[in-house]
Amino acid sequence: MTEDANRNHAQPMGQIIIKQCGFEACGPLNQYGPAVRDHYLIHYIVSGKGTFTSEMGRVTLSAGQGFLILPDQVTVYQADAAQPWVYGWVGYAGHDAARLTKQAGLSKENPVFSAGPAELIFDILKTMTDESSKLHMGHMSALGGFFRLLPYIEQRAPCES
Fold first, then answer.
1. Per-residue three-class SS string for 6-18
2. Three-state secondary-structure class, residue 100
3. What average pLDDT does range 127-155 have in this prediction?
4. Which of 32, 57, 146, 154 is deepest in the core (most CB within 10 A)?
5. Is the pLDDT of residue 136 over 60?
6. Measuring CA to CA, how many Å separate 97 from each of 16, 51, 68, 72, 87?
């Protein structure tokens, strides 16, 4: 047997930098954008609903779904009037950001995903947010959370929007 046959064929994790992470409980019709960012940004909806608009169109999303914003992409997202959303997000960049995003099944053409279980994803995002602001090595905790989050997105992406 060759040496290559004994190796784990998974891609190395590569270089990823967590630029931001957080949570927001939006008020009715709260809107962000139009805006452009210099990094990738994944939002996951914990409760409520709202709309996400990019050059690919406008989509209504609710709890258990999420969306990707690409670098240099103009987007707008807005909470519903009756059931405004609560969402968590993680923004990231780095040499392998594009590859990992594609590997998770997300792209400009497929920016929307369904993921679950919601409680687990909420816990991952909450831990990332709490620890990145409190711990000296919080960026390492946020990076670990990002890598724990990706498989849940990868298993469920893309979804019909």
1. HCCCCCCCCCCEE
2. helix
3. 74
4. 146
5. no
6. 6, 25, 12, 14, 22
Q: Computed from CA positions of residues 138, 126, 75, 31, in that sequence, does the dihedral angle turn out positive or negative?
A: negative
- Of the candidates 100, 91, 104, 90, the one whose C-alpha atom is nearest the C-alpha of residue 12 is 100
| DSSP code string of 8-73 | --PPP----EEEEEEEEEPPTT-EEEEE--SSEEEEEEEESEEEEEETTEEEEEETTEEEEE-TT-
pLDDT > 70 in the chain, percent: 81
The total number of residues written for the chain in this structure: 161
Mean pLDDT of the 112-121 span = 88
* Structure confidence at residue 80 (pLDDT): 98
Token reading at 19: 């630029």
CB count in 10 Å sphere of residue 55: 8
User: How far apart are alpha carbons 47 and 106 in whole angstroms?
Assistant: 22
Instruction: Determine contact, residues 82/92, Cβ cutoff 8 Å.
Output: no
Query: Does the model's pTM come out above 0.90?
Result: no
Separation of alpha carbons 48 and 36, rounded Å: 24
pLDDT value for 40:
97
